[in-house]
Amino acid sequence: MYQLIKTEGMAKRGELKTVHGTVQTPLFMNVGTAGAIKGALSSVDLKEIGCQIELSNTYHLHVRPGDDVVYQLGGLHRFMDWDRPILTDSGGFQVFSLSSLRGKIKEEGVTFHSHVDGRIIFMGPEESMQIQSHLGSTIAMAFDECPPSKAERPYIEASVKRTTRWLDRCIKEMKRLRQEEGTLNKSQMLFGINQGGVLDDVRIEHAKELTERQEELDGFAVGGLAVGESHQEMYHVLEETIPYLVKNKPTYLMGVGTPENILEGVERGVDFFDCVLPARNGRHGHVYTNAGKLNLKNQKYKLDSRPIAEDCGCPTCRRFSRAYIRHLLVADEMLGMRLCVIHNLYFYNHMMEEIRNALDEGNYAAYKRMRLEGFKAKGET
Prior knowledge:
Shape: globular
Mean pLDDT: 96
Distance between the termini: 43 Å
Helix content: 40-55%
Order of helices and strands: EEEEHEHHHEHEEHEHEHEHEHEHEEHHHH
Largest sheet: 8 strands, parallel, barrel
Strand order of the largest sheet: 4-5-6-9-10-11-12-13
Structural class: alpha/beta
Radius of gyration: 20 Å
Oligomer: single chain
Low-confidence stretches: none
């Protein structure tokens, strides 16, 4: 159950109570696609850096090790030793991202060739719900199609209508699964996903259709962004769409983004964010600070005894210098990547805590302005 605690303009401060604990929003979900954060982070690390919700992917866990394996081992929470909420993406994004490995999108669903061994995999709304039920996640996402944001209007309109029909099938299958004997999480939540590219009227109409199903949905997501459009176009879509979603349920902006994107998204009413960016950048030695990014592979850090950020309380900054981390990265030691990923995910989670505090105090606008000016002042170094 979601409780809206207070608002500042469109920005929302809330909390979501789940069967796996209560989380405070706005929040950033750390992406563990296959049940682990790339960069050799475990569930123990996630707790230390303040992660509230871990996100895993339905398609990838279905392919390997198999959702049946996870189910037999007690579900994803037990499998990865994580007792806080887990959100599972539906596999719908893979309809977009694995377009070279899939067949034609049909009303029944989508056929893929596994990216691991090439075997044929079929996934539709019912299959996605069944896999997510096997995984036992806290929040399941409805199966949708994510069309390219700049696709032609006729394609986007047809795609969105199919996504709505698929949503109704997801709702029906979720109801059945919640009653089925042997279901791991009979309180599994279901979020619907808004699509429509950058077409305002399509986005708004789809948001209204989702709202009509609010009794069956525990939250709403805005999908199909950060896939080719500009940041300003993305912000415009949020401004046009979110007012038509249900305010007293969480809103999730999928796959976004940079710290700047998050600050802008919060201002427009977003509760949940996720993105692979902080972990991916960390694995390449790019780390976030309040004054922009650092590339720790740069020669100038060879003798730098300072932590990544002197105002940071993450496990990396409490113990290690820029010089040491640079040495690890240049030597291609896995520890260097791990330390950078830990720092970046801590940075994101700590920033979300600051955002919640600013909303609690009623000064989010000032906080956002201060943050953006800090990022802009020095840029990447």
